[in-house]
Amino acid sequence: MIRGVLYIDPGTGSMLFSIIIGIAGVVVFALRLLIIKLGFLLHGGSGGKSSGKMPICIFSEGKRYWTYFRPICDEFEKRKIEVHYLTASEDDPVFAADYVFVKPRFIGEGNRALAKMNILNADIVLATTPGLNVYQWKRSKTVSWYVHIPHMAADIDSYRMFGLVYYDAVLLSGQHQADRIRKLEKLRGTAEKELVFAGIPYMDKMKERLDQSGVRKQPNKEPVVLLAPTWGKSGILSVYGDSIIEYLLRTPYKIIIRPHPQSFVSEKELMDHLMEKFPETDRLSWNRDADNFDVLNEADILISEFSGVLFDFSLVYDKPVIYTEPENFDSSPYDNAWLDEELWSFSVLPRIGRKLTRENLESIGALIEDCLNDTNSANDAQERDRVRQETWCNIGHGAEKVVDYIEKKHQELTKEDKSVDKMNEKEGKDKENGT
Fold it and tell me: What is the structure's pLDDT at 19?
């Protein structure tokens, strides 16, 4: 009799077991979030309006973004403005910088970092990370203003869908970016963001280093070709595989291959295969330097896709480029899918470079030679200058413009807070006095 009462059929038992596991998972997740929140509160990262609110924060997904943030940090330090630099890399180069007013802090990697950002207590957050409030990174209820700055001189609509919708402001470098943001806002019926023409601080820094190095690197007697592919299915190494390296090695040029850092993570099998098949020789080298300044300066010509490095090389170093377009490009996951126009990069690259296709891959040597010895090089230089004017405003002053905006916005936000506090204080006194 007792056995009959206690018996549970296998199906019901499995269901109950799943429910118990699910409840336990929710409890564990909630406890972990509480621990993170309490820890961040104790360190001044979050909490009530009166406790530990950070004035200005920079969020870096990792150490490779230091190049983009460093000029901005230098400007904040120069002006003696307190900034909290929150990074997801424990070995971020910011920790080696001798700053007083820029205060770096490691907040964990991956989702752990995002969990802390989700409960951050700050006036302003500056970040290059798209997808705010779309993916794991949510707007914190105790952050007043989110500012986005792109990390390349290219398309603002090449982010994943709704990449910038939930930012309050975007720092731009060209009118084409502003036009597309406004078109997307109108199509979607979303609120207009503050758009600020700031410039491109990291390219300013690169140009400054180049100018300070004395004379610009002169063409090599034996030309150097830099192959700098991005990662993913549209990357040159994924599309052309072994063949592009084989054809490059048939040319009389020195070859440097600099894969995207993510390739060694997401395409490890491909990279292992290529590096084993094509080991370093006196004519071929693999470059994995954290800083790309020297390798870009050494190269005479760059081969890449429609990525930011093409614009770095062409517009900063004023050298020729060869580009590839992704085969069967699908814009559906990107903001560009909303617009009845091609990406700005696609329209600009033919003006500053030559196109590599499957049809002319075998004659890549002749294509490189034409680029290096083109009698119309003066026209190419003029076209590069026109593109600079389109997409690189405030050359040499980008970091100043960024800090100008953030400093002014912070003053506006804190002034509003003080006005609200005074109003609340007055209402409280009126109640006490019965008025």
Answer: 55
Q: Report the alpha-carbon distance of residue 85 to residue 60 in Å, rounded.
A: 7
Fold of 215-391: Rossmann fold (3.40.50)
DSSP-derived secondary structure for 46-109? S-STTS--EEEEEEESSGGGHHHHHHHHHHHHHTT--EEEEES-TT-GGGGS--SSEEEEE--S
Hey, what CATH class is 54-200+395-410 in?
alpha beta
What's the mean pLDDT in 17-37? 50
CA–CA separation, 298 and 281 (whole Å): 17
Tell me the C-alpha distance between 302 and 336, whole Å: 26
Type of residue found at 237: L
User: What are the extents of the domains in the chain?
Assistant: 54-200+395-410, 215-391
Q: ∠ CA 31-36-42 to the nearest 5 degrees?
A: 125
Sequence-separated (6 or more) residues with CB below 8 Å from residue 386: 351
- Long-range CB contacts for residues 369-375, cutoff 8 Å, separation at least 24: 371/301, 371/320, 371/321, 371/322, 372/219, 372/223, 372/300, 372/301, 372/320, 374/320
Torsion of CA 32, 37, 38, 42, to 10 degrees: 140
Span 144-153, pLDDT tens digits:
999 999 988 8
**Model pTM score:** 0.81
Structure tokens at 127: 């970040």
Q: Is the pLDDT of residue 367 over 90?
A: yes
